[in-house]
User: Fold these one by one.
Assistant:
Number 1:
Amino acid sequence: MKHLFFFTSPLRDKILSLFLVLAAIPALLLGWITLVLLDQAHRQDVLVIEHETLRAKEEEVTTFFSDLMGVLDVRLEALDAAEITPGIDQWQSRLAEALRAEHDEFVEVLFVSPEGKETARASRTPRGGPLLYVSDLPAFKTALSGMPYIGSVYYTATGPNVVMASPVRAGEEVVQVVIAEIDLSLLVRSLTAHRLGETGYIVLADNRGVYVGTESFGSVKPGEHIVALIAQLDETDRYESIFSTTAVAGAKRVLLAGWTLIVEWPLAEVDTIIDDIREQIIVVVAASMLGVVFVAFLFAARIVYPIRSLEAGARRIEQGDFESGVFISTGDELEELGKAFSAMTKGLKRLQELKNEFVFIAAHELRAPTTVIKGYISMILEGDAGKFSGTLREYLTEANKANEQLLQLVNDLLEIARSEAGKIQIQVVPLDIRESIDTIREGIKPLMQEKRLTLSYERPTHALIVQADAVRLKEVIMNFVTNAIKYNRERGTITISHETKDVGVVTHIADVGFGIPKSEQGKIFEKFYRTAAARESGLQGTGLGLFITKELIERMEGTVWFHSEEGKGSTFSFSLPKGNDTLSS
Ligand code: ADP
């Protein structure tokens, strides 16, 4: 069964493909869908966490501003009388000072009259100078209209600052405006101190999209515009960060007055878990694919192996081997098929035996009368029955030829039947092949003369010992030589030579006759095969000689081959095992 894994088998490949289509592709698809869904769920989870964080931080920022705004929301009726008297300017100065002192974030607090003139000023570091007109400031204008005001970030030596302003009311009337400069350092520090996981961070931008920070973050300096990043966050949640130049998962939240909080979480941390899960899924899918392929191989082997056995069995039958049946033990229909095949082999064997028996009996029965006819015709031709006319001689000669051919056929059939029934006895002994050829040379002289052929035998001077059956060897050489005579041209030559090689002693019988066309060379050792040229030439033959010769050579453990060129001649060669030099008597 092992060879099935290494050799090509179209059926196995089909079964594998089927398994792949039915099992592996769905597994891949499922794995892929799981990965995609997992990825989506994970992205969603990350966004949820980021938005939670942003919400919490929004509250912090909002509380920061609304607390300060609450402080700046001054109402005259709520103040103590002592604070307002004796002069209006004094209560403003005192209040400005009190407010500034109370909150570390206040860098400076101004009170401004509705006309836009500063009425009081309290600074962290007093700057002196006259009180100014600030009626052009948007902070003043907004607060005077009754609205609280939060400006944009600007930087001073202390860090990021922002201006807030609020109307001062007496009842419903705006009687003053309070403007405060707020130091954002504390707020920013508190925001940047917060971490999301190990590496996530929070960034604040003001209403113009300016980065609010106390120091540079990556390549972004405090006060630099990050509008593009804020816009990008509307499009995507995963991108290359400008703060850390790594891929991040980001989210933003727009706060009061158009300020924005941004959270960024490097993917290296965010995707650690999902990467592990992804790897596990890939490993599981790959393992199940391998499993499918392995099972498919086993399954294919289970199907293909018995079929291969049947195929091998059929080939053995084709080669004439009816002995070895097929053994399949799969416990299913294939096993039944194997049994049926073996039974069929037995049936075929029986048929073969019957055929051989028939051929043998028919040939045997035909040989006796044919031999008798041959004898009588010879006797008549030799004049034993008295004188007869020339025409009768002619007829009898033709009848004799036909009878000779019939006898040859009968003898060949008998030989084949014997061979197939395993009845040919081969007794291999060491013998000098030169002597076998010498005897044949004598016997074929008359035939050679008819066609005026010359035979040249390159006879070695020393004995050439081969392992062969003396009678069968003569038959073999005789067949090659008679063919070389028969299929030679008038006055042609026949050359017999030997070679000693590793395979043994090789004998070549070459003629210069009409040769065998390439297209027919593969068939001439087949039973009854005669080339078209041989059939059309009118030369007698059965097409069984070479078949029997090959069989005999192989039985003597030799091999046979030939080279032939149409119109130029053929060289038939056969090898026989070398014998030792001690000849049997
Ligand atoms: P047969 O000679 O009785 O026809 P063989 O089995 O001896 O049968 O030869 C088979 C065929 O091979 C011949 O009919 C002939 O076509 C071809 N053949 C055999 N020997 C030669 C040869 N020496 N030259 C050309 N053709 C040959």
Note: The pocket of adenosine-5'-diphosphate is lined by residues 479, 483-484, 487, 511, 513-516, 524, 529-531, 534, 541-547, 570 (CB under 6 Å).
Number 2:
Amino acid sequence: MKIVSAEVIITCPGRNFVTLKIRTEDGVHGLGDATLNGRELAVASYLRDHVCPMLIGRDASRIEDTWQLLYKGAYWRRGPVTMSAIGAVDMALWDILGKSTGMPLYKLLGGASRTGVMVYGHATGRDIPEALDEFARYAEAGYQAIRIQSGVPNMRSVYGVSKGGGTYEPATKGRVDEQYWSTEKYLDFAPKLFEAVRERFGFDHHLLHDAHHRLTPIEAARLGKAVEPYRLFWIEDPTPAENQAAFRLIRQHTVTPIAVGEIFNSIWDCKQLIEEQLIDYIRATLTHAGGITHLKRIADLASLYQVRTGCHGASDLSPVCMGAALHFDLAIPNFGVQEYMGYPEEALEVFPHAWTKDGGLMHPGEAPGHGVEIDEKLAARYPYDPAYLPVARLDDGTLWNW
Ligand code: CS2
Ligand code: MG
């Protein structure tokens, strides 16, 4: 199965996506997602200029050896750009293996460990009533797990709330938005949001929330403790995780479960968090954490410490990543939940897919490989449109964690 071509396709059906397409001499092709929100061209160049030429002539079935070559061979290991490029190659090679054997990816990973994949959606609102109404829509649609985010009174910006309906997209076209954050106002408000959810909807739904790296460890501990009566499924990214030991401080004070990892790109980013059981869910993704080959290693390490997966699935991970993730989620033993924010209609048209969705439950389908394709003609109608993630500042202008 010699590789004869490896090309990068950049398209912007509602938002930018970077897709790697690898083709073998037998005419089998595989796709991998290489999208890194706000830094798409960096990964595209890393692939086009440095990786794709190395792939030509290689045996597509040597997935592990290719992973090791791209990881160790770069010398400059790890990092979101490198690991997203490796992730895209790895996803494409597993896709080719599935197509050449006629096997859906989940069967190559050991077969189904569950009947379907529980996904969570995003209930957002500018205030509590609006967020609760959105929560009701997800509950009526049959979701068991729902994330809730709301505007905070007297805060100049809101996090995680879609601007004027449609799927939430944090990147802004052509500029870096400056948003403002006040931890004091947030900590005072957040417990009221969860209390309102439990009062109106009871405890039948898994309730998730994203603090998006904005608290210090002791502030995260204070929040976790304050919301224990509302039994959250998890608080996500409570504090920046470069210092993995910081989570010991949170763990000392609260039993509210913690999810971290959407910005991780290797097992080294989470080894201590997992081994010391400082987290309950690991959110690393196939795209940003080196593909199926590496994320399987992370999930296997996590399973030794009863840590489950909760893969990031924002709309800036392409449908190719989502398709592959659903296979991964169906197969691994320590699956927790999969984020699914949904996609703009035009994105789903550019990326035909085999997955099915019934309320809050998804299935990757039985198509060989990961089951997601790209309509290249349609993709060409949506040229790259530069867009960047915001930054956050405190009221006094201090640059903070967005
Ligand atoms: C968020 C993301 O979905 C999440 O949990 O953290 O929306 C994140 O902000 C974006 O993926 C960044 O591109
Ligand atoms: Mg998040």
Note: Residues 210, 212, 236-237, 262 surround magnesium ion (ligand 2) (CB under 6 Å).
Number 3:
Amino acid sequence: MIIIMERGSTPENRQKVIDLLEQNGFNTRINVGDIYTVIEAFGDKTTVTPGRVAALEGVREVKIIREPFRLASRDRKEEDTVIEFPNGVKIGGNNKPVSIVGPCSIEEDYEGLLKVAAAAKETGCEFLRGGAFKPRTSPYDFQGHEEKALKYMKKAGEETGLLTVTEVMDASDLPLICDYVDVVQIGARNVQNFKLLKAVGKRSVPVILKRGLCSTIREFLLAAEHIMYQGNPNVILCERGIRSFDDKYTRNVMDIASIPVIKKYSHLPIIVDPSHGTGQRYLVEPMAKAGIIVGADGVMMEVHHDPENASSDGKQSLPVPMFKDVMKRLNTLTERLHYEKTCLSANVS
Ligand code: PEP
Ligand code: MN
């Protein structure tokens, strides 16, 4: 870390910083300038945290050199993480981006869910998604059908051969949820529910971790770090938009740049969710394409057999015929990009 001392800091202030660091195994070097004094320190930040140094008298600012998300960082693991499922589906690396689609909530109408699942299978999607436990802003909104919905999900997955994804909101539901689905999702509202992150970290189940409504990229990656630190390396990040000031035309601001940024600093796969990212049906296709073009490892989209009567998120859900058209174009784009990528790497080697 780099410690910048206050303009009026005393030699005693500086010595106290150096003593704390050196007593904890850091190597330090001091540069006394005309105005500011800077101390460089190299060592293990788990023994002395930057926050502890920042609290010392006379310290103006502490800058960290190495990213605080260690296990999720490219510094630790240079090659992309690829998550592989028993049926051969892979997420990450040079693999073709996956498609994770389905209704926001699993509803009473099983046939409706099956219609969506069949369309997903027909168009080459790999995963069926749907909420059984729903995180709703209002207690008066639909809260989810819980275990009954999980049963529907499993059945639809088995009937179509699709892998399944559902959200977990509470650690106590994890054993039940893991009995029914292949992937658990931690939603935007729970990205800093550390108990939940630790609980999924203690299992090997693949986790889709959504970016929080106001998460910085560093906070997002530190949330992933919590899961990995407990021993679960199977984290799939999901950019789903962040809260900003324009809520008239879009529900969130989908941060497209976060994908190449995260690819630069982390080896974890990252997918995009243009449904929650925009909140508008007509924006799902262009933003899904944008995500794929900038390197996302997959797309999550909400699809409903009757969006006008959906229990949640109908406005952003694609009706089945529109979804099929969108998938046709996404598949063309994906194949083209994949072809170019493999040709390019073949030329390079
Ligand atoms: C969802 O996937 O239906 C959902 C609630 O997503 P988010 O956590 O991104 O709002
Ligand atoms: Mn939703």
Note: Residues 83-348 form a domain with the TIM Barrel fold (CATH 3.20.20.70).
